[in-house]
Fold:
Amino acid sequence: MTEHILEAQNIVFNYTGGIAALKNISVKIPKGKKVVFLGENGAGKSTLFLHFNGILKPNKGKILFKNQEVKYDKKSLTALRKCVGIVFQDPDTQLFSASVSQEVSFGPMNLGFPREKIEKYVNYALEAAGISDLQDLPTHFLSYGQKKRVTIASIIAMEPEVIIFDEPTNYLDPKHKIQIMDFLTDLNKNSTTVILSTHDVDIAYAWADHIIVIKDGMVLQEGTPKEIFTNTSLIQDANLTTPVILDIYNELKRNNHINSDSATPRTKAELLELINTSVKTY
Structure:
């Protein structure tokens, strides 16, 4: 039976002026999985994320963490945010300390960790994010990609059980996109539940264990990458496209160039291996 670490129950949220952002959303996040919220800009992904760690409070409905309803007093929110960290889309909105090491140590210090534990966790987070060599630099001297890694390290240092990433690959070049996604995979290997939002169907298809499609503040469908991207009507309704890897695979199969019972590839490496081993020669 699947264990769920976060749950939204019938969440309704309107911004000032009556703008409906979330419309009776209910969704469960499986523990220890790589979960993607997929949808267009403005679909409600970021707003839902801000509910998951208590930054926003729903007008109706409730959020549960480990089957316990989230409470909004200071003590309860501090405890929640130790367990559920969020990395915002724009790192400049999250960075405010003078140096990288100060930025990464702020969270553990704020949570009251002892000095020895702070030093241990900060060093681990800097190394995990690949920025140990930047620890003494001012944050405003860093590139966009480096700032992104600092914000990630600042969350890792608090040792959360869940880390939420809002559009983590936005504005990154292809090389750094791959590095970030590989890094998120490594995080998940430590049993951390990793949640991210994106409108990039290729990233969602290749990386996710579980995909939740969201549009206009509502959940349209959820399931495995294969279940989502073989649902033609869903793709159309959500204004999405089919991942390139899946398009190529389907074309090869349609033209009888590969065995019809071959496993469906999800990554470039899997597709190339399939082509090298299964393409029929004439």
About this structure: The CA atoms of residues 93 and 99 lie 15 Å apart.
